[in-house]
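HOLO CASE FILE
Compound: tryptophanyl-5'AMP
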Amino acid sequence: MARVLSGIQPTGDLHLGNYVGAIRRWADQQAPDHFFCIVDLHAMTVPHEPDELRASTRELATWLLAAGLDPATCTLFVQSQVREHTELSWILQCVASYGELHRMTQFKEKGEGRHSVSAALLTYPVLQAADILLYQADEVPIGADQRQHLELSRTIAERFNHRFGDTFTVPTPTFPTAGARVMDLQHADRKMSKSLPEAGTLLLSDDERTTERKVKRAVTDSGTEIRAGEDKPGVTNLLDLLSAVTGEEIPALERRYEGAGYGTLKGDIAEAVNDFLRPVRARRAELAQDPAAVEQALREGAERAREVAAATMDEVRDAVGLLR
Ligand code: TYM
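Model generated. Tokens follow.
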């Protein structure tokens, strides 16, 4: 059976892009050999508030359990509670090159316009490679925006194996058929993200009326036709979203909405998104009453993760010539 690892940052609220791009598949396909990591160390690469980080880490864990991750089946843990991540990250920094890191689009985007950026923003993708390689993951379920980071993880694994002998599994990324890149509802040329103004971001924590209002205000395109295409970025995003939450394919949706107006499409999307999120939102409200259960899941998750991580680190230390 394939070993799976994926990760998510505890920054801001979860949005529908995170959910359909990654988390839903984590929950649907979970198995004992699947590891899901709340990457709190990655969230420190840009300025942060300590209290907020602590709170968002717990909050994200609650949402992930609400989304269906079952600690009795898979392993959910917090990155910083497994110290091997930072240890391996250092060793991999000695294998990755400065030029490779400098070319990463996310580094360029996040650094843009900032007076000064942390060194960790540059080395961020190496820590991500460490997250994956520590668990010898075969597959990494992610959204399309993480493709470049995954390419780098593969390069680092291959280079390490070539230099020091076969040590790491070279991971393969997997993407959903719909919803791999959910775009912002107000800016159809930008991915839905926690860092953009909220009007175009469908948050899991929104109430149903807010979701409806955001969908109804989504930008569309000139013309009235409901079809996907490069000249119709707004409508294409809406169809992709509907396809992601209902499982219907885009050509079938185009046929259904032939002759219909944008208002009808948006009304149906708002309803479909709310139907889709209702059980997760309800479960999250229940779990919020039981913080001890969330803590317990994270404690057990870290213990299981540590066992696997420590075994990989023993091999890595031997391979590179560090004393045990
Ligand atoms: P993060 O926290 O930004 O996002 C978590 C997951 O959600 C996906 N995603 C999207 N999918 C579709 N449409 C969108 N608009 C959208 N926005 C986000 C992301 O692709 C991701 O799968 N660097 C990673 C976290 C990370 C990681 C890892 C991932 C750290 N270590 C190891 C995989 C394996 C990140 O910032 O994801």
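CASE NOTES: Residues 5-9, 17-18, 21-22, 39, 42, 128, 131-132, 140, 142-143, 145-146, 149, 179-182, 191-193 surround tryptophanyl-5'AMP (CB under 6 Å). The longest strand covers residues 4-8.
CLOSED: yes
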